[in-house]
Amino acid sequence: MDPQEPKITGTAAADETAKTATAERVGARLEPDGSLLLTGLSLAPVPDRVEPAGVVFRGAPRAQPGPGMPYTITQRELVWADNLQELIERAKRRQWNASTDIPWAAGRNVAPDVEDAVAVILTWMLQQEYAAWYLPAKFVAQIHPAYTEVGLFLSTQIVDEARHIEAFLKRLYLNGVGLQEVAAGTESSIKGLLMQDDFARASFLLHVLGEGTFTDLFHLLIEIAPDEATRQIMVRSLEDEARHVAYGVGRLRTHLSAQRDVAAVGQQFVEALEARLSFTYEVSGLPPYVQEALAIVAGRGRSPVALGRGVQRVRQFIDELNANRKQRLLQSGFPEPLAEHISQLHIRSSGGLM
Ligand SMILES: [Fe+2]
Ligand SMILES: [Fe+2]
């Protein structure tokens, strides 16, 4: 026997074992540019439903059941959106810095009447931003880690909203004007949203209705901003906001497409909106004092001619808001009469836009 033979055989056997192990281990698929996305990993499939237990990503081997946990989000259809991966990546790419990415020096020398009106608008918007910040933060720890991608996305939203608060505060105090008087109705309305304990309803109210309308408001403010600093804040914030709405609409599509009875789900949302009415004193989608401030900014002043111009633009904007809201509801999969009903209820219950 060739003295080397056993050695060769041994190596061949080892190679065979290595091949088998390699066959079972599917490595990550890198993108052409070398980056690694979660979709490049061989992760366990997203489960339809999970027990509220354990603290580990889906697919972990375990010999014993995990400890019970206070997760309330344990069903795929209530939380998943097919566009999650894309939204997570886009959110990371498009982060910005409120200290350095806004041309603050270009926000000086705004006419006093217009500057005061900007402060009224921003004070009210700042309050809405707290709703958009605190609500996802409240729910992140309630998401079962089987749906970690949702937590990753909502974490980007939390950072986005914190940045909006920072940017609005900076613009408010840029020229020494600062916060304006707080309206009671606005706070009651936001409280009604923050008290919501059901994620599907909260996401519908915040991501689809509230932030949907906020994207329209950002469009208007990009158009009427009196200075480049304000305009840039709105451009950047709009991009963030559009991602939040895209998640909300994507989540709602998943939710509605899993239902035999879409009207029954719609009814739950209608009830959530009706419940919010009890928190709200105001009955308009945009409080009158905010509409007035928008008109001053749009018309560039308080003179009758300027104000007339501004009021006309704001009236037109309210019509755009209502049309766009209904369009979003139809896109999410609601039938027309339900979309109309929900849209009308939102106008009555929001007292603010959120
Ligand atoms: Fe925001
Ligand atoms: Fe947002």
Give the SSE map.
Blueprint: H1 5-24, H2 76-79, H3 84-93, H4 112-140, H5 148-174, H6 184-194, H7 199-224, H8 228-257, H9 262-277, H10 288-299, H11 304-332, H12 336-350
The chain binds fe (ii) ion (FE2) (2 copies).
The site of one fe (ii) ion has 5 residues, from helix 8.
Beta-sheet strand percentage? under 5%
Instruction: Profile the largest sheet.
Output: none
In the CATH scheme, the class would be Mainly Alpha
Bound molecules: fe (ii) ion
In total, the number of domains comes to 1
Order of helices and strands: HHHHHHHHHHHH
Number of contiguous helices: 12
Sum this structure up briefly.
The chain is mainly alpha-helical and 354 residues long. Helix content is 65%, strand content 0%. The chain is globular.
